[in-house]
TrEMBL record:
It comes from Natrialba asiatica (strain ATCC 700177 / DSM 12278 / JCM 9576 / FERM P-10747 / NBRC 102637 / 172P1). It holds the Pfam family AAA_3. Gene3D superfamilies: Magnesium chelatase subunit I, C-Terminal domain (1.10.8.80), P-loop containing nucleotide triphosphate hydrolases (3.40.50.300). Residues 47-188 form the AAA+ ATPase domain. This is ATPase associated with various cellular activities AAA 3. PANTHER family: MAGNESIUM-CHELATASE SUBUNIT CHLD, MOXR FAMILY PROTEIN. InterPro entries: AAA+_ATPase, ATPase_AAA-3, CbbQ/NirQ/NorQ/GpvN, ChlI/MoxR_AAA_lid, P-loop_NTPase. GO terms for molecular function: ATP binding; ATP hydrolysis activity. SMART domains: AAA.
Length: 334
């Protein structure tokens, strides 16, 4: 890990790419084989999105979330979701002070720049809904008072797809608040061998050994750069065609929402930015199709009985929608 001060870049450079490279390098010193997840986390941070990490126990979901929080330098809180946790345990409450007869506002752990909701599907639907207003409106209501959340604000949630006992499936309204859903798979043999060697050499390796690699000002510049990325009209039509195709697909009852279209657009802008471009290309749209859309689809009963998955539908949609010509997608051709 670097012992230097947070990275410093010239204001004229692509701050988005600089931040992404720094986060990737720093987190890679601890974790192995999570490049795709780090990319999505960076895009979500730059576009004010939220990320749902799914994977079996032991693949490093929580470690990744905590490592990203440490590397970004943002104030963060971790909430361990359980069936007995209450909405007030997340948002906060008014505490009565008996000695003077007044109420004190006790802010909950949601008041942080980055909130890690660990095992979110272990919380009851009522508790899960406490995050809805926070994730969409960036504010919460406590005893009738509406309070703004810190800026930036981001939720990273984790869930285990295997357990069936003591868990509550996230409703569509909750899933739609997540910009991306990413599945962390078991590492291949080479990656696991590298992981074993790395932790054998340094058993203390973990999120606490990660250094901050960016400043608040750099994040602000990175967000501005990402939002300024050019998306040509044919590429916007390509994006809309893909979203529309999820709604018209024979295996879906409900496709992606207009919210999905907007976060999809923001995502491809940030994807282009972190890869060093000031314009988007079709590969940006293709790369973000699955993490953006897969958790937003409601499959028809016949499709579920036939073992069709949302991943299958998204793959079919991307393969069926015509790709626009790349020679009209640069800013020079506006």
């Amino acid at each position: 890990m670097s012992e230097n001060e947070p990275i410093v870049d010239d204001a004229s450079t692509n701050a988005s790419a600089t931040i992404y490279d720094a986060l990737q390098t720093e987190i890679d010193d601890v974790l192995v084989g999570n490049d795709d997840a780090i990319e999505l986390l960076t895009i979500a941070l730059l576009t004010r999105g939220h990320l749902l990490l799914e994977g079996v126990p032991g693949v490093g979901k929580t470690t990744l979330a905590n490592s990203f929080a440490k590397a970004s330098g943002l104030e963060y809180n971790r909430i361990q979701m359980t069936p007995d946790i209450l909405p007030a345990d997340i948002t906060g409450t008014q505490m009565y002070r008996e000695h003077d007869g007044t109420f004190d506002l006790q802010r909950g752990p949601v008041f942080a720049n980055l909130v890690v909701a660990d095992e979110i599907n272990r919380a009851t639907p009522k508790t899960q809904s406490a995050l809805l207003e926070a994730m969409q409106e960036r504010r919460v209501t406590i005893s009738g008072d509406t309070l703004e959340l810190p800026i930036p604000f981001m939720v990273i949630a984790t869930q285990n797809p295997l357990e069936m006992e003591g868990v509550f499936e996230l409703p569509e309204a909750q899933l739609d608040r997540f910009q991306f859903k990413h599945r962390i798979d078991l590492p291949d043999e080479d990656a696991e061998r590298e992981l074993v060697d790395r932790f054998d050499d340094n058993p203390a390796l973990g999120p606490e050994t990660i250094d901050r690699v960016m400043t608040d000002e750099q994040l602000h510049r990175a967000r501005e750069y990402a939002s300024s990325v050019y998306v040509a009209p044919p590429l916007k039509e390509y994006l809309i065609d893909i979203v529309t195709a999820t709604r018209e697909h024979p295996d879906t009852v409900h496709g992606a929402s207009p919210r999905a279209t907007l976060v999809y657009l923001n995502g491809i802008k940030a994807s282009a930015a972190i890869h060093g471009r000031n314009y988007a290309i079709p590969d940006d749209v293709k790369a973000l199709a699955e993490p953006t859309l897969v958790h937003r689809l409601v499959l028809a009963t016949d499709a579920e009985l036939s073992d069709v998955s949302p991943d299958d539908v998204v793959t079919d949609v991307v393969e069926s929608v015509a790709v626009p010509s790349t020679d009209i997608l640069t800013p020079d051709e506006q």
